[in-house]
Amino acid sequence: MPDPTPPAHPELVTLKIDGRTCQVPKGTNVLEAARTLGTSISYFCYHPGLSSPAVCRQCLVEVKGQPKLAPSCYTPVAEGMDVLTESEKVVTARAQMLEFTLVNHPVDCPICDKAGECTLQKMYQEWDGSPSRVDTGKVHKPKVVDLGPEIVLDAERCILCTRCIRVCDEVAKEHQLEMAYRGDREQLTVAPGKRLDNPYSLNTVDVCPVGALTSKDFRFAMRAWELYTTPSVCAGCATGCNDEVHHARGKIYRLVPRENEAVNKFWMCDEGRFTYKEIDTARVAAPRIGGETSSMDKALAFAAERLAGVPRELLGVVLNAQATNEDNYFLAKVAKALGITHVYLAGRPPKPERADDVLRSADVNPNTAGARVIANALFGAGKAKGTQQLNADIAGGSVRGLWILGDHVALDDEALAALAKLDVVYQSPHDNFLSDKVSVLLPAASWAEVHGTFTNAKGLVQRVRAAVEPPGEARPHYELVALIAKRLGVDVSVGAGALTAKALFAEMKGAVPEFASASFGREALPIQLRFAASRG
Ligand code: SF4
Ligand code: SF4
Ligand code: FES
Fold first, then answer.
1. What pLDDT is attached to residue 204?
2. pTM strictly above 0.85
């Protein structure tokens, strides 16, 4: 992946664009320089995260003193340069290039999955809008081509920009796509003997400016303009890629990457995109006592009663690297107030085979770093024990009661057998092998249903936002903790107002040194994608 990080003191170049002066670092291209003035130049093949082959000629501008129009994506700024982006020559060239691009395009927008977020549609509306002059048959190319496990190609819609080829070569570092044939017969195809099956393959769908590459998972599931977008962070691993949750009427349809130069640049892995599917799988929507559905009130009273019946020195809490900082902090705070000293840290076991030097981390939890610093700050460095010790303590009888946060607690057979004899309060979004072994199961909200923060592997604290409502009686872990803690006589007040993730974060900043300079981030209401113009 190219590193666009500018040097600390870049040499600045001064130029004029449409009569306005701007100063940009040396090496910047004219297209990006124009952006700094709010001037939008049309383009297809350029992508700020990829190399620039200048193949589409959609971004032509006039540079005074040069006889021919220049591709702004490929032309570096020069001192004293005078650029025109709206001269008659440029406007004509722009419309002519669009007409040329559309000569063999099927214009099947009504049945195209990209309609509503297609760059070609947007450009035609903005820069051309004239009727087609094509009165001959169009060149036909393969349709519904199965390129790999996730992606389908419609070669007729392809405008030959090569972005998808470059994403594979430069981001995934695997040469899986290339062009075949020449002229108006040119078409995208897989490289000889290859399939489009790299772990980052769905980034090709994001960068495709048209509906040529579509995701098998999303195609025909929902029209883009009906979706709302909520900014969040992927819960698939410790990298914490910034993403957008696309949802409508309480259902999540896809996760797509959101630009963050410091974390994931423009990309996400395929596995991370599919984490939304786990949310609705085997959901717990109502409390259960001993496996039987119960009212929330009864379940909370039962949970408090069971925990109160265990001597404090034999009671343990399990923090979870799958839960937010706010959830972990609040359970740790309540545990400390109760005098509990057995603290464990659970989460999904690592998957070393998935780690690479692009984005994917072996740690498949979004908040290992956050849960650890919280435990260190509240109980002392290194005091939180891992799941190996949790297994040993359950089997050996060192703990008689547990208050567990989140799913994915790796218990072995011996500990599982012993667990049935313990008093266990289990807050989980999902049903799993623990559900019928615990005293009481409480329905918790998942990461897509709560506000809060995760701390990624580099220690960056990032905001997750509630995109959809939790099912049934499920609610954030910290609310469940508060409802039980109140019944145990613990003061659960946080600040002067209501108990919210924001209030917990504010308190945590004073209690956990690693959060001192972190920010909870701004509020962001979901935006309907119809107002987001185009994607790709
Ligand atoms: S499939 Fe899409 S991204 Fe790939 S070359 Fe064609 S238009 Fe460009
Ligand atoms: S690399 Fe990790 S955080 Fe990024 S998209 Fe993949 S699973 Fe999610
Ligand atoms: S965007 Fe500049 S030539 Fe394609």
1. 98
2. yes
